[in-house]
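hi support,

uploading two proteins for the ticket. first:
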Amino acid sequence: MKGEPYPNSGFQWYYPGIPNKLIIMQSGLYNDSEFWKENKRKALYLLHNNIWTKEKEMMTREIFESLVASSNIPETPIEKIKELLSFLLKNTNFFGQNISFKKIPNEPKCFQIGFESKNEMFSLVDEAQNLGWLKIYSQDKNGANISLTINGHEIAEREKNSKDSKIAFVAMSFDSEMIKSYNEWIRPAISEAGFEPYIVLDQHPESDVTINDAILAGIKKAKFTIADFTHHKAGVYFEAGYALGRGQKVIYTCREDEIGTAHFDTRNYQHLVWTDGADLKKKLMDKIEVFIKV
């Protein structure tokens, strides 16, 4: 879609897939065809889930990449199928109700769920049926009517419970200095943001086995995880990786004097680098607002 010039080196146009959706984009980003070739699916997911800049605000590369990083866009086939299951659960009123998916290039449901194309969507619909998670009621050259099976409904409910959770799991070093930071700054930041902190220290486990059980149980219950890498404890890396592997959002934090020795595995993820407790609390609350409450 060709955009019209916009003040301050930008372009504007109405996106045809959503009524009255005006897009304003920085010129350097607008003209980067290679970038959009690589990120088209992600952009369409953000647009169709209303995760975009506010009206009359310009989309920059930095904002776009931040939105992508914070939106848990499904990447793997299983993640995309689970997103489809969640979509069906959210958009049906009773068990067995089916929804029509059309075999057209611009099927909005395809973009909203995060599929690359209608071909990928219907291939994964077939796979989900083979797994016993979906039932295809009818399918022809125009599309298909799809509903959840009881197994698919159970998976979708589990995903929903995780997304609806008010728990924030905290992974961190348990030295006295960091426990003080947790009590005075991290815990209040989580509570004031409207969530309930979960830290293993509060669970009073009696052995290494029950500690591990408490950790895994806490992450499974949580909506998101805060992983502070100050002192670079191996357990924090494990807990962050486990949460990420479950498709959970993870907020990475680290004290400024420790960030230089962060393990290379986590360097691709943006860290909140903090100087003192007050700085950590403010940055955490801001991050929760834009990263978790979207």
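and the second one:
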Amino acid sequence: MTTFKLPECYRELARAARAAGWTITRRRGGHLAWRSPSGAVVFTPASPSDRRSVRNNAAELRRAGLAV
């Protein structure tokens, strides 16, 4: 498993995701790929621009099945 540093705003989401069996990988373009155990994939920016984008990404992860 390759490790990389997540932005602080994503760390709580990442802990919940990994505990639920999700995997998080960094893509070549600088985005993060969040893959659920069921196979759903959500792409987020590796460095979000503001608080609203983090909240929007969290909502997208919830819609994909992550219980936050």
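thanks. also noticed: The chain has one domain: 8-63.
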